[in-house]
Write a structure and sequence with these properties.
The protein is an alpha+beta fold. It has 2 domains: about 55 residues; about 140 residues, Endonuclease, Chain A (2-Layer Sandwich), CATH 3.30.870.10.
Length: about 200
C-alpha cells in the first residue's frame, strides 16, 4: 500500500512537472513571438522615421553627397569619452582628422587602421601620426575595405561612406550610426584582430 502511494505521488509529481514545464514553455514562446512581432513592426516604421528599434538599440541613417555624414562623424568624435577605434579604407577629410587629433589631446584613446593602398599625400595618416595618434597600416595583401568607427564601446558608425571628399561631395553613399553595446562588441573583436595583424 505504501509503495502504491509513493508510486502514485511520483507519477503525480512527474505530471505536475510536465504541465508546469509545458505551460512555462508556451508562455515563453508567446513572449518571444510578441517581442519578435513588436520588433519587426517597430523596425518597419523606423526605417522611415529614424527612431528607436527597441529600448536598447538606436540608429541614425545618413546619405551623401552632402547629407550630413561628415558632420555626424565629427559630432560623435567630439563627444567621445574614452575610446575611438577606426578601420577605414580611404581617409582624406581634414576636419575629421582634426576631430580625432582633438579627441586624442583630451585623453581619448584613438586607434586607427588604414588601407595601405590609400596612403598618399592627401591621407590623414601623416597628421594623425605627427599628433601622436596610434595609426597602423593594414597588412592584408588584399584590401581592408572597412569603413567603421567604434566609439566608447557602444556606438558603431559604418556604411559605404569613405572619409573622403569624393564620398562627401560627389558619390552616392550611406552611413549608419548604431547605438548598441552588443553590436559594438562584435565590431571591436574584428578591430582587435585586424589591429594585431597590422603594422
Amino acid at each position: 500500500m505504501k509503495k502504491t502511494i509513493i508510486g502514485f505521488l511520483l507519477i503525480l509529481s512527474f505530471l505536475a512537472g510536465v504541465i508546469v514545464g509545458a505551460t512555462a514553455w508556451n508562455i515563453n514562446q508567446a513572449k518571444s513571438k510578441i517581442v519578435i512581432t513588436k520588433t519587426l513592426t517597430v523596425t518597419a516604421c523606423c526605417i522611415e522615421e529614424n527612431k528607436t528599434v527597441n529600448p536598447s538599440v538606436l540608429y541614425e541613417v545618413y546619405f551623401s553627397p552632402n547629407g550630413g555624414c561628415k558632420e555626424k562623424l565629427i559630432y560623435w568624435f567630439n563627444k567621445a569619452n574614452f575610446s575611438i577605434h577606426i578601420m577605414i579604407y580611404s581617409f582624406t577629410l581634414d576636419d575629421v582628422g582634426d576631430a580625432l587629433v582633438a579627441a586624442y589631446k583630451r585623453g581619448v584613446e584613438v586607434k586607427v587602421i588604414l588601407e595601405r593602398e590609400q596612403l598618399n599625400e592627401y591621407s590623414e595618416y601623416y597628421k594623425l601620426k605627427k599628433a601622436g595618434v596610434e595609426v597602423k597600416l593594414d597588412s592584408n595583401p588584399a584590401l581592408m575595405h572597412n569603413k567603421v568607427a567604434i566609439i566608447d564601446g557602444w556606438i558603431v558608425i559604418t556604411g559605404s561612406y569613405n572619409w573622403s571628399l569624393n564620398a562627401e561631395e560627389k558619390n552616392n553613399e550611406n552611413m549608419i550610426i548604431i547605438k548598441s553595446v552588443e553590436l559594438a562588441k562584435i565590431y571591436e573583436k574584428e578591430f582587435q584582430k585586424i589591429w594585431q595583424e597590422s603594422i
